[in-house]
Amino acid sequence: MKELELKYGCNPNQKPSKIFMRQGELPIEVLNGKPGYINFMDAFNSWQLVMELKRATGLPSAASFKHVSPAGAAVGLPLSEVDRKIYFVAPDAELSPIACAYIRARGADRLCSYGDWAALSDTCDKATALYLKEEVSDGVIAPDYTPEALEILKTKKKGNYNVIKMDPSYVPAPQEYKDVFGITFEQGRNNFRIDESLLGNIVTQNKDLPASAKIDLVVALITLKYTQSNSVCYVKNGQAIGVGAGQQSRIHCTRLAGSKADNWYLRQCPKVLNLPFKADIRRPDRDNAIDVYISDEYEDVLADGAWQRLFTEKPEVLTAEEKKAWIATQSGVSIGSDAFFPFGDNIERARKSGVQYVAEPGGSIRDDNVIETCDKYGMVMCFTGMRLFHH
What we know:
The structure is a single chain. This protein has helices at residues 37-57, 81-86, 97-107, 126-133, 147-153, 211-225, 250-266, 270-273, 283-293, 299-302, 307-310, 320-327, 345-351, 367-376, and strands spanning 3-6, 17-20, 28-32, 61-66, 69-75, 116-120, 137-142, 162-166, 175-180, 183-188, 231-236, 239-245, 333-337, 355-360, 380-383. By secondary structure, it is of the alpha/beta class. It folds into three domains: 3-166, AICAR transformylase, duplication domain (Cytidine Deaminase, domain 2), CATH 3.40.140; 175-266 and 327-383, Cytidine Deaminase, domain 2; 270-317, no CATH class. The strands form four sheets. The protein has a six-stranded mixed beta sheet. A five-stranded mixed beta sheet has the order 12-11-13-14-15, with helices on both faces. A two-stranded antiparallel ribbon has the order 1-2. Strand 11 (231-236) and strand 12 (239-245) form a beta hairpin. The two termini are 28 Å apart.
């Protein structure tokens, strides 16, 4: 198959629309559903991310994509009891490494992952399919599917869930083309390989970079490679916990991603873990309620007439002081940036979300100020020498 006609492009008025190969056959097989233009944009970008992450770490990898940027990405490390609770996984559920990878990837920002595109580096198995079945998702791309997993996924969205099988041996052409305003752009593919060897140039006084932090920094950098720039990514335990995409200012990226990392950590606060939800409240409604509860707009779910729809009893307010104190206990977080930090204010903001390890290209005229700020807090920072813009 050299081409595949699509319903429409980014919007319903953009017709005709298709994907096609200039040479050779399309490296995909649509096993179920009818993916659209944006679906394929998410599928192909997310596929590249998970395959690079698997190659760099040796671990099963997954991503949760929305609008051509990752809402989350992760490697397949086991879930803790708290992880299972905040990601709605039964305590006794048997999970494979690839299932853990996707659950973690989606758990980075469950609001942004609503209606996501899932990408898996390994064969989709029963455990992964069962979790996907209960989530609001548009589709999935993987190198293969077990027969049982495929049958489960085919029951999703009244039989219309998009399932794509990708040829893992596919190698794209070395040149990329894109038309904008009737003008064709050409560039070489960004084949720059990201792995632990990129972290050798440690420029801070503290040079203690443990193996776990190396994995986290690699997760951050590969995630950034496929995130719309400017972008910043916070990672902990092999899982993105905050992605700031497409901001014009670097500090706004850092703040946005940091606020998402804070929200991820606040979901683990005892008051949040023990919210008395009614048994029939759906996952998306729980996610929305939690997001409002931990925000400054908490009265929207705690007001009389509102809390009764969600909870069996009225929860106590999570005060600003309690939130600040809980976030202050966060530690061991890594952060990556797709271009250099121009000022130390980015490090100051990152520190508030528990950041201890930093990877960025370097090359700013104020590198000395950024290094000095890291040294002030005993952080470890690597200069990678490689910008990772993605547009």
